């Protein structure tokens, strides 16, 4: 994969040093890049492996439902941000990434453990929608074209 570029984050250590840690790869696709993140843990013990083929750092993580969770996946985005409460299905890639990053931040925060099952379910629903929009199934039906961006789509 000659066009794959490593993606790093700076990790601050307790001794004050900073280490660059590779978290995935970016691959050119059209005018942009596709970011593939590997498994990540912050503090504590790593989560149990989900198994399956291609679970290495070059495959996109797919959140697993915990054994104790039941019921359907959420169908609406959380009640914050510019698209609060909007349906997950048909949401823009930018919105899906925004809410997925918020869920990942919550999952990385041990003080928010009581919300982790809900955040995992949200990530799974978002992942399925992203796959559906890319034509990878996960929802059936034809891909819907997202509406063109407006000034309201600006992140600031």
Please tell me about this protein's structure:
This protein is an alpha+beta fold and 156 residues long. Among the domains are: 1-35, no CATH class; 72-137, no CATH class. It has helices at residues 93-108, 116-133, and strands at residues 4-12, 18-29, 32-37. A three-stranded antiparallel β-sheet has the order 1-2-3, with no helix packed on it. Helix 1 (93-108) packs antiparallel against helix 2. The radius of gyration is 17 Å and the shape is globular. The N and C termini lie far apart (35 Å). Residues 50-68 and 138-143 have low confidence and may be disordered.
List keywords for this structure.
alpha+beta, 3 strands, globular
What sort of overall outline do the alpha carbons produce when their principal axes are compared?
Answer: globular
What is the C-alpha radius of gyration, as a whole number of Å?
Answer: 17 Å
Helix proportion of residues, in percent?
10-25%
**Mean pLDDT across residues:** 75
Structural category is alpha+beta
| Biggest pleated sheet | 3 strands, antiparallel
Share of residues in strands: 15-25%
Which spans of ≥5 residues are poorly predicted at pLDDT below 50? 50-68, 138-143
């Amino acid at each position: 994969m000659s066009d794959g570029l490593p993606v790093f984050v700076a990790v601050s250590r307790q001794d004050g040093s900073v280490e660059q840690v590779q978290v995935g790869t970016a691959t050119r696709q059209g005018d942009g890049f596709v970011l593939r993140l590997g498994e990540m843990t912050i503090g504590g013990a790593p989560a149990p492996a989900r198994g399956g083929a291609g679970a290495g750092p070059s495959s996109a993580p797919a959140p697993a439902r915990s054994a104790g969770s039941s019921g359907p996946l959420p169908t609406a985005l959380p009640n914050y941000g510019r698209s609060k409460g909007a349906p997950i299905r048909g949401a823009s890639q930018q919105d899906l990434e925004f809410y997925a990053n918020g869920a990942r931040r919550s999952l990385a925060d041990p003080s928010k453990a009581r919300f982790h099952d809900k955040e995992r379910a949200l990530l799974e629903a978002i992942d399925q929608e992203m796959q559906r929009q890319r034509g990878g199934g996960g929802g059936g039906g034809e891909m819907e074209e997202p509406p063109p961006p407006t000034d309201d789509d600006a992140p600031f």
